[in-house]
Automatic annotation (TrEMBL):
Gene: ATP10D
Homology family: Belongs to the cation transport ATPase (P-type) (TC 3.A.3) family. Type IV subfamily.
Keywords recorded for this protein, A-Z: ATP-binding, Endoplasmic reticulum, Magnesium, Membrane, Metal-binding, Nucleotide-binding, Translocase, Transmembrane, Transmembrane helix
Domain named P-type ATPase N-terminal: residues: 69-120
Protein's name according to its UniProt entry: Phospholipid-transporting ATPase
Species in which this protein is naturally found: Oncorhynchus kisutch (Coho salmon)
Length: 1297
């Protein structure tokens, strides 16, 4: 009861103050400590107290701000002092590095020592140094960026000088007052305390934060004086707010004044770091979060790191290598023990008290050191280098460059490039991903009458075709793309700044419908009230009034694109027949057209509205007496304006209203300036804006009508919501009432729009009585002043107002396809990738778009899942599964496509139904999820990914796609019209959907094939070389001795054979890019992991073992019976193994260039040069052996070269013969495609046509399709072609013809 009294008291205060309302505005004050609202105003949990650094409480500043960070940022990992210890600490987090550190330490134990202590350290030291250099370069780059940011200058209040002075950003502290001017960047998260704008607002651009170029409005904290600039010394208030967090859309707290009154603080009061001040000359704020505590830095997570599928497979094979190493060491240990036991009395043995068992145990660890190369420590470093090289070539591919945006592909995840070649499922958003997200006003229906805008549709087709350069392009619906050669929009210069968000020529150029223009011209006629069409005209005027004002558009002038057009105080304009126009709008609220009675306002209420919404100075705009032109010439509008909208839908609707001279000329916090045909400029008092949210799926504005003085709610939103909220006629049958007729006709038009692929929005209004508005305002004021549960209370308040709406009409907006989307989806499907579309659009719209982009084919069997309960969903899924099984048995069915709506999907994702849903969808060629929420998108991706164990890719462009992008194995963000949220959460960022085709089919295929072959090659060369040492143990009593000096042994894998595999992993090209694009079926080899199968791994191991046997025993028998010593015997073995390993790579390589030849020959020459010099100058380099002159002597004998040649030929002959026979008898598709690349152009074209004909015959089977005349012959008489696809097929046929 006390709260009711308090609300009543506050309302009386508001009436006395005669203050207006703004966006989600709240009362002028909030509860004091003595009020009942106090407990609700408390912040729960941890919080931060902020006081002015140079204000009255500065003596408390140090204690209050003790835990707050400075504003300097540091993204570097290291400092000069901490680099070495921290880098070593991080590198030894890798198991491989710890393993080799263990070997180094083990070699220092005398009883198991195998080499010189320093030599065993070399591989580990080299790896650590290489990684440290890379980390140091990356960290230095971050350091330079930090210095640049920290040294930026801001104007900060100085307590000593009693004025504002320039300070570096890093010197700003929490509690500082910062003054900024227009176009300056905000240095820290600040609470807005003063704005030079009379209404206490400022605009910020968040492009540096989220990529959005549209302006966002922020408000000064309530109850602060705005007449003069804020004086920091007089700021006596304390600020209590939540602790730093990364939620960009939420800020909670309150400001406590000396009088103990508290004012709620919300996100509209907060200016975020990195944003830019626009449209405001001066603002002053107090810093609440600084440095790494700002929301921008809290969201800066840096590059994304994932573990690829190939890397996980490689780790398993490394474990097999460990098992192989243990087996070899155990064999040597057991053999050494048995050898010692059998030779206990041998005279050549040095007497030792060590038992054979203990000696075998010691030898086990010695062999671990000797055979350490079997575990490829350099493989991890090589993979990182190769992936950096692959990313370099991907980022510098000119085909990914977008000239208009001046952007190229971004590789944000550095270690999953090979996953691009193994994708099996693609989950795509629709709007902004498959389509342009540039809306064109196409059609509308008002009061049940449709206005087709046929000329505007032809213009849209022409613009679409010209922009897409589709002279011989995609097959799509006529409303989405076209084939006209007419003039289209000019491509803006990439160097020009983007002054306005969502204001492309496509959105601006709207050709009015002549019939609708004729009706609107009646407003200029003095006899329009006498006609029967006057009632319909009220609907039309209100419809365009809603289009013009129901938005958050910022109106700017063309000469100063970032400065808002100010809204003057407009008095009663000298319009013609103003009272008649007033009567026109009053007629719209009569009982027979509305459920609301005409407002019976008392004199006191009229006095209140007169004082509250008084109009002062005369209007500067005069009405246009001339009728509306039916066609607008480019640039013919007088007083050109720039609209900056939050979404392309808003921009399209505002431009559409302007095409009918219903022009929004100014937009401020409390007032709108609208020019209507025949009426001139009218000042509309803006009471509230109820912004769009995904729960309500609509937005509303509450205004005081400038003529009737009534409170009117204009609402626009999704048709599924607005049609349910529209009022039902009372006292009459639905079919006999005007509103019933409008609802029925509008629904028909909406269905037609959806079938044509248009995005639909419904427009409605509601006229409130004064008493009704006052009751709602009390509750809304209570919701606005709440600190806890504020969002929930505001949602309830908005829903309470948006009921019993009067339906005005609906709009149809075309969102044209991006260029080459049909070709891209068709190529992905040919590549074996299943494409799912997850969208929030209507089912009919999604089906039509899917048909246009070739996701749906005319021969597909369409399965539709729409149900209202869980039980019905379960039954439907089983029914559809049975229908699919029957269809699979019948001939002629090319595939199934499932279309499921959001409500049914919610049931299907539940635990007991997800199995049935997955079983059904996995058998479908494509799945379309309509009306799906962001959460449902991520749930679908996770379900398919986890249950089917497949590689998934999610692609989207908006914030609603972030969740599924992060869940998928590979996330692709499109830098489009909806900001950069998707890009910042992605692994790769592209500018157009068509780039996905080359990214997967070409670069994905190359990256996977190259890396898989390189990893196998590393395993091969390590096993091959290590086995040479193992075979020698059988001839040296398993003593752990080696037949080569330790320097060559360590450098063999570290230097002599390390560089060629890197070039192999970066530049090897099995098939050309053109062929991979033309033959998407080649991508399936990566999906099936054909380059790196378990069988492939073990065959490679067996081949390595065979080659090691040949490489060891050919020299063994060649030198048998000679006086060659151990090092002389090992010299041809080392040389032969090097040649075998290098030539093995030549056999496996698909590309050989001069660079490959240079590195291969360079590696061989480096080895021979090193060993020759080593044998000449080294005397005591490898004790106890003396390699002096050994290699020099061997290289001077013909036997050495004969043994090397014979060994190399015998070792590689099986591999060479196997490759030749396999590629001749049963060549893979990749080999066939590689052979096609070698043909001349004519033969290449003939071979390509033959390939495609063969693939088409396999797919179509007995189905005959004549696309040109849409003659579809199917053997199965029960085959059902949906009507949507029939229309799509007809459109396809007309376009191809």
């Amino acid at each position: 009861m006390e709260q009711i009294h308090w609300v009543r008291h506050r309302w009386q205060q508001l009436v006395a103050a005669e203050s207006g309302r703004g966006r989600y505005s709240a009362p002028d004050a909030v509860p004091t400590k003595s009020s009942p609202k106090l407990h609700n105003a408390q912040l729960t949990g941890k919080r931060r107290t902020v006081i002015a650094r140079h204000g009255p409480y500065q003596h408390e500043y140090d204690s209050v701000s003790k835990g707050c960070q400075g504003n300097g940022i540091r993204t570097t990992k290291y400092s000069l002092l901490s680099f070495i210890p921290m880098n070593l600490f991080q590198q030894f987090h890798r198991v491989a590095n710890l393993y080799f550190l263990f070997l180094v330490m083990l070699n220092w134990v005398p009883v198991v020592e195998a080499f010189q202590k320093e030599i065993t350290m070399i591989p580990l030291v080299v790896v650590l140094i290489v990684i440290a250099i890379k980390d140091a370069l990356e960290d230095y780059r971050r350091y330079r960026f930090d210095q640049k940011v920290n040294n930026n200058v801001a104007t900060v209040y100085s307590g000593k000088q009693q004025t504002y002075v320039d300070q570096r950003w890093q010197d700003v502290r929490v509690g500082d007052f910062v003054r900024l001017s227009c176009n300056e960047i905000i240095p820290a998260d600040m609470l807005l305390l003063y704005s030079s704008d009379l209404h206490g607002i400022c605009y910020i651009e968040t492009a540096n934060l989220d990529g959005e170029t549209n302006l966002k409005q922020r408000q000064v904290v309530r109850d602060l004086p705005q007449g003069s600039e804020l004086t920091p010394e007089n700021f006596h208030s304390r600020i209590e707010c939540e602790n730093p967090n990364n939620d960009l859309s939420r800020f909670r707290g309150y400001m406590e004044h000396p009088s103990n009154a508290r004012v709620g603080l919300h996100n509209d009061n907060l200016l975020l770091r990195s944003c830019t001040i626009r449209n405001t000359e001066t603002i002053i704020g107090i810093v609440v979060y600084a440095g790494h505590e700002t929301k921008a830095m809290k969201n800066n997570s840096g590059p994304r790191y994932k573990r690829s599928k190939l890397e996980r497979r490689m780790n398993m094979d490394i474990l097999w290598s460990v098992v192989l190493l243990v087996i070899m060491c155990l064999t040597a240990a057991i053999g050494h023990g048995l050898w010692l036991r059998n030779l206990e009395e041998a005279s050549f043995l040095i007497p030792d008290t060590t038992s054979p068992a203990l000696a075998g145990f010691y030898l086990f660890w010695t062999m671990i050191i000797v055979l350490q190369v079997l575990i490829p420590v350099s493989l991890y470093v090589s993979i990182e280098i190769v992936k950096l090289g692959q990313i370099f070539f991907i980022q510098n591919d000119v085909d990914f460059y977008n000239e208009y945006l001046d952007s190229r592909i971004q590789c944000r995840a550095l270690n999953i490039t090979e996953d691009l070649g193994q994708i099996q499922y693609v989950f795509s958003d629709k709007t902004g991903t498959l389509t342009e997200n540039k809306m064109v006003f196409r059609r509308c229906t008002i009061a049940g009458v449709e206005y087709p805008h046929e000329e505007n549709g032809e213009t849209a087709k022409s613009l679409s075709c010209k922009s897409l350069s589709c002279n011989r392009s995609s097959v799509s619906l006529h409303t989405l793309t076209g084939h006209s050669e007419g003039e289209g929009e000019e491509t803006p210069s990439p160097t020009l700044p983007r002054h306005s968000a969502f204001s492309s020529p496509m959105e601006k150029d709207v050709v009015p419908d002549p019939f609708l223009v004729q009706k609107l011209n009646c407003l200029s006629s003095p006899l329009f009230l006498l006609t029967d069409a006057s009632m319909e005209l009220t609907y039309i005027v209100d419809f365009f009034m809603a289009l013009a004002i129901c938005n958050t558009v910022v109106v700017s002038s063309p000469n100063q694109p970032r400065h808002v057009v100010q809204v003057p105080e407009v008095s009663r304009s000298p319009l013609k027949s103003l009272e008649d126009i007033k009567m026109l709008f009053q007629r719209f609220s009569l009982p027979r057209f509305s459920t609301l009675s005409p407002p019976h306002t008392t004199e006191s209420t009229r006095s209140f509205t007169g004082r509250l919404f008084a109009r002062g100075k005369p209007a500067t705009f005069t009405p246009s007496p001339s009728p509306i032109p039916t066609k607008r010439e480019h640039g013919s509008w007088k007083d050109e304006l720039i609209y900056e909208a939050e979404s392309p839908d808003e921009a399209a609707l505002v431009h559409a209203a302007r095409a009918y001279h219903c022009t929004l000329r100014g937009h401020s916090l409390e007032r709108l300036l609208v020019e209507l045909p025949g009426m001139g400029s009218l000042a509309v008092r803006l009471l509230h804006i109820l912004p769009f949210d995904s729960t309500r799926k609509r937005m509303s504005v509450v205004v005081r009508h400038p003529l009737t003085k009534q409170v009117v709610v204009y609402t626009k939103g999704a048709d599924s919501v607005i049609m349910d909220l529209a009022e039902l006629p009372k006292g009459a049958e639905q079919s006999e009432s005007r509103q019933g007729h409008i609802r029925e006709q509008t629904q028909k038009h909406l269905d037609n729009y959806a079938r044509e692929g248009l995005r639909t929005l419904c427009i409605a209004k509601r006229v409130l009585e004064e008493e009704e508005y006052e009751v709602w305002l009390k509750r809304h004021a209570f919701a606005e002043t709440s600190i806890e549960n504020r969002e929930e209370l505001l949602l309830e308040s908005a829903q309470r107002l948006e009921t019993n709406l009067t339906l005005l009409g609906a709009t149809g907006i075309v969102d044209r396809l991006q260029e080459e989307v049909p070709e891209t989806i068709e190529a992905l499907q040919r590549a074996g990738v299943k494409v799912w579309v997850l969208t929030g659009d209507k089912q009919e719209t999604a089906i039509n778009i899917a048909c246009a982009c070739k996701l749906l084919r005319s021969t597909d069997h369409l399965l539709t899942a729409n149900c209202g309960s869980k039980e019905a969903c379960k039954a439907l899924l089983l029914e559809l599964r049975a229908e699919m099984e029957c269809g699979e048995a019948a001939e002629g069915t090319s595939g199934f496509t499932l279309v499921i709506d959001g409500r049914t999907l919610e049931f299907a994702l539940q635990e007991d139904l997800k199995g049935d849903f997955l079983e059904l969808s996995r058998c479908c060629r494509a799945v379309i999820c309509c009306r799906s929420t962001p959460l449902q998108k991520s749930q679908v991706v996770r379900l398919v990914q986890d249950q089917l164990q497949v590689m998934t890719l999610a692609i989207g462009d908006g914030a609603n796609d972030v969740s599924m992008i992060q869940v998928a194995d590979v996330g692709i963000g499109i830098s489009g019209q909806e900001g950069m949220q998707a890009v910042m959460s992605s692994d790769f960022a592209i500018s157009r959907f068509k780039h996905l085709r080359k990214l997967l089919l070409v670069h994905g295929h190359w990256c996977y094939t190259r890396l898989a072959n390189m990893i196998l090659y590393f395993f091969y060369k390590n096993v091959m070389y290590v086995n040479l040492l193992f075979w020698y143990q059988f001839f040296c009593g398993f003593s752990g001795s080696v037949m080569t000096n330790s320097w060559v042994l360590i450098f063999f894998n570290l230097l002599f054979t390390s560089v060629p595999p890197l070039l192999y992993g970066i530049l090897d090209k099995d098939v050309s890019a053109d062929t991979l694009i033309k033959l998407p079926e080649l991508y399936k080899s990566g999906q099936n992991s054909k380059a790196y199968l378990t069988s492939t791994f073990w065959l490679t191991m067996l081949d390595a073992i065979y080659q090691s046997l040949v490489c060891f025993f050919v020299p063994y028998f060649a030198y048998a019976g000679s006086d060659a010593d151990m090092l002389s015997f090992g010299s041809p073995i080392n040389a032969s193994s090097l040649l075998i390993i290098l030539l093995h790579q030549v056999i496996e390589s698909r590309t050989l260039t001069w660079l490959h030849a240079l590195l291969l020959m360079g590696s061989a020459l480096f080895y021979f040069s090193f060993t020759l010099v080593f044998s000449v100058v080294c005397v005591t380099c490898s004790p106890p052996n003396n390699p002096l002159g050994v290699d020099k002597l061997q290289m001077s004998q013909p036997l050495f070269y004969g043994v090397c040649a014979l060994t190399t030929m015998l070792a590689l002959l099986p591999r060479f013969l196997f490759q030749a026979l396999h590629n001749s008898i049963c060549p893979s598709d990749t080999v066939k495609a590689a052979l096609m690349d070698q043909l001349n152009p004519d033969d290449y074209c003939r071979r390509m046509q033959r390939w495609n004909q063969t693939q088409a015959q396999i797919k179509t089977r007995s189905l005959v399709i004549d696309v040109e005349d849409s003659d579809i012959k199917v053997p199965d008489p029960d085959f059902r072609l949906p009507s949507e696809l029939k229309e799509g097929s007809a459109a396809t046929g007309s376009l191809l013809s």
